[in-house]
Design brief:
- This protein is 33% helix and 23% strand.
- It is an alpha/beta fold.
- The protein has two domains: 122 residues, Rossmann fold (3-Layer(aba) Sandwich); 110 residues, Rossmann fold.
- The strands form two sheets. It has a six-stranded mixed beta sheet, with helices on both faces. Strands 3-8-7-4-5-6 form a six-stranded mixed beta sheet.
- Helix 1 crosses helix 9.
- The radius of gyration is 19 Å and the shape is elongated.
- It starts with 5 loop residues before the first strand and ends in a 5-residue tail after the last strand.
Length: 246
């Protein structure tokens, strides 16, 4: 097959376009189709956090929509990963990154003294049961939904590449987006090469194809994985092979 792989990005538009720019800068030479299956919509923050609360963020969208509604500069915060931590720091928060996933964030919290309540500022759809797990561990924890992730129909451009013959690289950044995209796929004639950021995202995928999961749940490894699948990077260290839909 001589068709160059196509990269299909289905995250919300801002994140997809940012990742597309990173892929281009890193050398991805194929076609990139941005076709969000989720749209981010803000929700009102009912009350600002009380002084002394440690804020928890599991996405940069949480930072964006929380800080748009309340002055959070100076609050202590913890973030699931480096990108989210940088967004919080740019908004004036004293934020520490767990550098991984929800389990890494929980381990970071467990390693610190209980200095007061924690508040998870999150999207309407969240995984990991963070607050419940914190309460089980004896922490004073609450949550507030500051944005929603509403489904968006698959675009005509996305359907065109899915009905073609070129392989389609499909990065899966969350279980919910994996489920929504898989449900919207039919009909498909193109070979699918899904890449999941986590085993949870891989398990949510029912669209078939040669599934691969990055070894560490972050955007840098997703980028490396895309470059490997696109033939732009001869290093498979970022990937862990999985059986489809395992």
């Amino acid at each position: 097959m001589n068709d160059k792989p196509i990269l299909l990005l289905t995250r919300p538009r801002a994140q997809s376009e940012g990742f597309a720019d990173q892929c281009r800068a890193a050398g991805f030479a194929g076609e990139i189709v941005v076709a969000p299956v989720l749209e981010i919509v803000g929700r009102p923050l009912m009350a600002p956090p009380a002084p002394g609360t440690t804020l928890i963020f599991t996405s940069a969208n949480g930072v964006l929509h929380a800080t748009a509604q309340a002055d959070l500069a100076g609050f202590a915060a913890m973030a699931v990963g480096d990108k989210t931590a940088r967004a919080a720091q740019a908004a004036g928060l004293a934020c520490v990154s767990a550098g991984g996933d929800v389990s890494a964030l929980l381990a970071l919290l467990a390693g610190q003294a209980d200095t007061g309540p924690v508040l998870h500022l999150r999207g309407a759809h969240s995984t990991g049961d963070l607050v419940a797990r914190l309460r089980t561990a004896g922490r004073r924890a609450d949550e507030a939904v500051v944005y929603d992730q509403t489904p968006h129909p698959l675009s005509a451009a996305a359907r065109r590449c899915l009905r073609g013959t070129a392989p389609v690289i499909v990065p899966l950044f969350s279980p919910r987006s994996a489920r929504i995209l898989a449900d919207a796929l039919a009909p498909v004639t193109a070979p699918l090469w899904p890449i999941a950021i986590s085993t949870a995202a891989a398990a949510a995928w029912t669209g078939g194809g040669a599934m691969q999961v990055v070894a560490h749940p972050d955007a840098a490894q997703m980028l490396d994985a895309v470059l490997v699948r696109g033939g732009n990077l001869n290093n498979g260290s970022a990937l862990v092979a999985r059986e489809p839909n395992s």
